[in-house]
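Box 3.1 A note on notation
Throughout this textbook, protein chains are presented in two layers. The first layer is the amino acid sequence; the second is a token string describing backbone geometry. Keep the layers aligned when reading.
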Amino acid sequence: MATPLSIQLYTLRDQIAADRDGTLARLAEIGYRQVEAYDPTADPAGFRKTADELGITVSSTHAYALFSKDAGEVFDAVATVGTDLVIIPGGIEHEEFTTLDGLQRTADLLNGFAVKAAEHGMRMGYHNHWWEIEPRFDGRTALEVFAGLLAPEVFLEVDTYWAAVGGADVPALLRTLGTKVLALHIKDGPGVKDEPHTAVGKGTIDVPSILAAAPDAQRIVELDSCATDIFTAVAESHAYLTALEGRS
């Protein structure tokens, strides 16, 4: 059975800062049954209580906090919010993806986090932007080379928009990465670095072809910024993806 659509809560970071519980309630009203957290250490018990009351589960979480807080504290918070998938979404110098030595150092970092995660029954993943796509090594993207250096249990959450901005043929990239890809960030927009995003289905990205290339990957809506009302955009994204694939 297909997993429900999820949404990365960073999309609504300003709304969550103002009214977390009300924002989660609006997402539930739209039809989102899963969310991806971006800071599990921010009142994890309170977050979990509200999510449970709304019938929302946590598909995964980003964890910048691993760079600034005790790993055990972070993983305990992840367990409290209710997921076992922990993702590094940045915090690494872009230059590390321009050399083979840098790729190895970054893989070693992720693999080290994975050992600690496994002690808590969790898995580590990595989320890309464009800077892991633009550098090429014998015709392969840095992300492809990086994937080959990761421990088998470390997965990828491919941001399909940023992969396209970085110059990748995204469906081909996903087919190459195969089962290493556990989740997709689905976003849309003009396909350039510095412009606001749009609701999924209203931009330049060939979303149907991308989804077809990774049929088993979790779909997670994320809009880093948006030129229109954000709640309207996430509702339109949900409606588009639900109609496209029958997920809800």
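The longest strand covers residues 57-62. The two ends are 12 Å apart (CA to CA).
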